[in-house]
Specification:
eight-stranded antiparallel beta sheet, 905 residues, 25 strands, 3 domains, alpha+beta
Amino acid sequence: MIVTSRVVTESFRAPQPDRHRFQTEEEFLMRSNTLRVFIFGLLLLAFAGITMAQDPTPETPAPGPGQQRPGGLGQASQDPQPYEKVITKDAKSKKGIFTVHQVKDKYYYEIPKSEMGKDFLWVSQIQRTTNGVGYGGQALGSRVVRWELGENNRVFLKLINYSVVADPKLPVAQAVADANNNTILMSFPVAAWGPNNETAVIDVGRLFTTDITEISAHQRLGATTMDAARSFVERISPFPTNIEVETTHTYTRTAAPAGAGGGNQPGGGFGQGQMNPGSATVTLHYSMVKLPENPMMPRLFDERVGYFSTSNMDYGRDEQKATQRTFIARWRLEKKDPNAELSEPVKPIVYYIDSATPVKWRKYMLKAIEDWQPAFEAAGFKNAIIGKMAPTKAEDPDFSPEDARYAVVRWLPSTTENASGPHISDPRTGEILDSDIQFYHNVMNLAKSWYFLQVGHLDPRVQKFPIPDEVMGRLLEYVLAHEVGHTLGFQHNMKASSEYSQEKVRDKNWVHTMGHTPTLMDYSRFNYVAQPEDGIDVADLVPGIGPYDKWATMWGYKPIPGAKSPDEEKPTLDAWAREQDDKPYLRFSTDNSNGSDPGEETEAVGDADAIKSTGLGLLNLKRTVKLLAPATTNEKGANYDDLSEIYGRLFGQWTLEMNHVGNIVGGFNSQERHIGQPGARFTPVSAAHQKDAVRFLNENAFPAPTWAIDKDILRKIEPIGVLGRVRNAQNSVLNNLLSSSRFARLAEQSAIDGDSAYQPGDFLADVRSGVWGELSAPKVAIDAYRRNLQRSYLDIANNKLNSPPATLPAGAPPGFTLPPTSGDEKAYYRSELRTLNAAAGAALARTTDKATRVHLEYVRDQIAKILDPEKNGAPAGGAGNRQGLEFLEMMADPTSCFPDYIIRP
């Protein structure tokens, strides 16, 4: 597997799966989903392993002369037949890079010897699938393959691995080759030799009706086996540089043993569940595209600029260690006029809009693609990226959106509220060769909801549902432009937005010119910090291509005259990267920050100071809650589903903004620096600012948000639920604030910086004073919302003290790690609980409220059980491993560009 060394913080504030170890986002998603399926299906796998261990496979007799082992990928040896006997007059033949012959129900490849030993990119996709398991156009993966002519009239299809390399002229090259033998995917007897023995004819049908792991869909579907009797080739179409194949495959899935998980588990398959037990027929599409014989000169990766990447271990480097070489992912752009400052490219980047896209949204989708043109102008290219409508069958009968030669925006009929932008790169150079953007129909619902909740108070057009098409079109343009950015090679950049101060994101002139975030690749959705009095134009509330996007495109795509190798480009690239020192808004997320930088927030605007930004956002949410009912209840005869959904998302937005403040605690301000740039990469947030963050949460997060508890709304949508909504929202904030990784950072800051650091004991005492503030009142009364919060606190403390040490599940992919912990954490929590127990006992004498008295008696009982579970019995609630829960939260899809965050009761 091609891997990189890039690590960057993702949505959860814990060490994330290293998405940049994978060549594409799609590949990362496959690995993340694989792990989640593993967790949910652990018992099933264990059961299968035990069964196999108790029932060994009988030894297979050795094959006789001219035979293959049963179950092998080869066929019995046979002598080639005369060409005209195999390719008969009944053959339907099409010429391309290989000539493809169809003789009745058989398909033959006629492979020129000149194409043997050449590299091809093999791309597997789902074209049509069973209901509930993925969508057409979703990728299965990509591989580099090579056709080779072997002895005894055989042709081998081999899997080529470029993860380990060396200059073939060096002595070490043979050792590298010996340690990196290419896998044979399938062996084919030569059915016939073509004219002058210049071509080899093979029966290729078996390749597409055999369940070969490397190109199969059964793992993604959660299937058990493929039924060859119900699987067949539908068509094979050759072209000058590629061959396109469509197949029908029928898979079966056996039911899981009782209690062993399985079924339609969350997170399985494509993130859309697994197929149900029984059979499912899907259509697969395979593209085999010849890799460039003249590879693009790669550009070396730099942690200071956010590109996806590919890597290899190069044993031919003259260095005193095994050297990993990492190259950025980018399209090949070459100037028509190399001497011109601004030139059109020899071959522009073209994206096609799927014909399934609703007509009224097409102009917005096309504009989203070409929004990137100014960024490429910064790199010296004019009209470098172009959007087109996919041709109809009448216009081009050979056009296929699955064809790897075409980058296509696929509109998927799905209730999923998301979009994704995977790409496929040449593993030798990082050259992007293909991309099919997945655009889910229901992302419209999410974009509408977010826009309304975050800036609806500033835009009268959306204060009545449905919102106007012009607004929805602009939101779709934003969503797609973000995904196009991924397919141009750009990672998410959560850092840049924190380099705009609150003053800037409220300055209408600044926002009009620079945007409220420097990059479209952040998760800074809409400007929820802006206030009505700021006068910001509604057209500027949605992000667009920003200064970071233009600079990063320049850094990755601008030709460097005179440079003949990646190493010769390094001085120029380093000089460009150092522009971040003087222009902080050009910065990218810091490598190995592991969630410690509060300036790398997701879903944040103006997170240079999240306390100020969240305070302003809170003012806007209080304005928005008054708009909920008028916006969603204006259609006579309709139900209250829209009101219920938006009300739930309101709590989600509140939780996000509060968690931005919590992440200041134990935080480090960071900047990615390379040697020669002065200053530390990580600087602790001041103790005073951390303490201010806890104070803000004590005042705004831990008291119930009464402004959001609207009796008129509640009585329209549910008979019960608001206590649960508030409990879940507050519990999320408290869990985040009290995370073990945050405590570990506080402990380390204290150990290194001494008295100037925010001390862990002071932190826990400050949180206790906010969550349990009523205990010090002259007359103690605790309402229902606060009682829920305090029970959550006890559950968290119980998990800290009594859960077993967390461990990664066996088989976890490389790069997955548990959050850091501190050996002091348990001792501090025991001390806190003893202090709390004494305070609760004293408060009992100062309360006359029955509910409060019952609650405090319960609190004391629970504390006793937590501190000594063997003597007093296990405490109620709070079971489970908190760190294990953090790990499972980490498994939620961090590649999801537009994740939902409804807070449900």
